[in-house]
Amino acid sequence: MALDGISPEARLPTGFLRGLALPLGLLTLWELSSHSGLFNQQFLPPLEKVASTAWREWTNGELLSDLIVSLRRDLTGFAIGTGTGIAVGLALGLSRTFDKIFTRWFNGLKQIALLAWIPLISIWFGFDEAAKIVFVALAAAIPVILNIVEGIRLTSQKSIEVGEVFKFNRRQVIVLIYLPSALPSILTGVHLALIYSWLATIGAEYFMAAGPGIGGLVIAGRERFEMDLVLLGIVVLGGVGFALDRMANWLEYRLVPWRRP
Question: What domain range includes position 242?
Answer without folding.
Answer: 44-259
